[in-house]
Amino acid sequence: MSIREMRLQTKLSQSKFAAMFDIPVSTLRDWEQGRRTPPAYVLKMIKTILHENGLLNDNSYIEACELRKKNVESALAVLFSATNGPDEAFMDVLQAYISGEITLEEMEANVDHLVYLGV
After folding, report:
1. Each residue of 80-96: b (16+ CB within 10 Å) or e?
2. What is the CATH number of the domain that holds 13?
3. Residue 103's domain spans which residues?
4. Considering the entire predicted model, what is its pTM?
């Protein structure tokens, strides 16, 4: 990912982006226009800082979010089918799933055994 792509993803102007990293605006402009090349360690440092501060999301992060979303949707579908809706049992199981006490597979096994319906 180029320095320009990183800056554009943050939606910061060149001056604000440069100020964030204490880089002269003229240097940033030269990097973005290809007149100069930033050192590889600088690119890596900037990318790491932006990523750690939630200002930069690469494809792997977006894919991981989509996977988590699908897992939560699956968990909710399982819980809705195995309980009487968002009652106390539903909320207890959902909290256990969110906190990592049980996995989706464990939840599905309990559903198969009708555990959540008290049968």
Report:
1. eebbeeeeebbeebbee
2. 1.10.260
3. 60-117
4. 0.50
